[in-house]
Amino acid sequence: MADAIFYHEDFYRQIELVPEENYFAAGKFIDDLPPKENSIYGFSNISVRPEQKTHLLDRKIAIDEIKNILTPISLSYSENVTTGYGQSSWKDKNSVVWGFERYGIFAKQKGKFIEALWLSNSATFPQKNTGEHLTRAILQLSKQYSLILIDWDKEIICRLCFEDAVKEYLCQNLSFDWY
């Protein structure tokens, strides 16, 4: 499994693309989060995210549609996706990934439709810092399917209507060099 693309399970859907209809509910959830309290052992409180009201699966987006959009832009593609933590790893069934600069867009499918789209980094992606391909991919997906980006870890919601919004997010939060 040398060509497997690994992502740490802690990053599963931490930066996700979801239908725009979820913007206000996700924003309210983030606004109502209690302050983070951590210790040397980790966080002492957690918040369980509610399911999105509108799911990607509701949109009936075929995996082939996503392939047609992302394949010409991506720097790599793999159907061999693994996840895990520590010394443990396993195949992430029904997931594929398009690789870009340092990050990939992962897709989990249910049948022939998309169930989830999220970004995660991997050492196997090109370690370029421009973000050109990733920006184009995010923009095309968001415009085609009216998606927003939610970064649950940083508690950020980003409307992806304009190239500058995507570039700003990538620069300020994922350390890409655009400016």
Question: Secondary-structure map with pairings?
Answer:
Elements: E1 5-8, E2 15-19, H1 23-31, E3 38-39, E4 42-43, H2 63-70, E5 76-78, E6 81-85, E7 88-91, E8 95-99, E9 103-110, E10 113-121, H3 132-145, E11 147-151, E12 156-159, H4 163-174
Parallel strand pairs: 1-6
Antiparallel strand pairs: 2-10, 2-11, 3-4, 5-8, 6-7, 8-9, 9-10, 11-12
How would you portray this structure in words?
- This protein has 179 residues and is α+β, with helices and mostly antiparallel strands.
- Helix 3 (132-145) packs across helix 4 (163-174).
- The protein starts with a strand and ends in a 5-residue tail after the last helix.
- The radius of gyration is 16 Å and the shape is globular.
- It is built from four helices and twelve strands, in the order ββαββαββββββαββα.
- The protein has one domain (14-34, 53-81, 93-174).
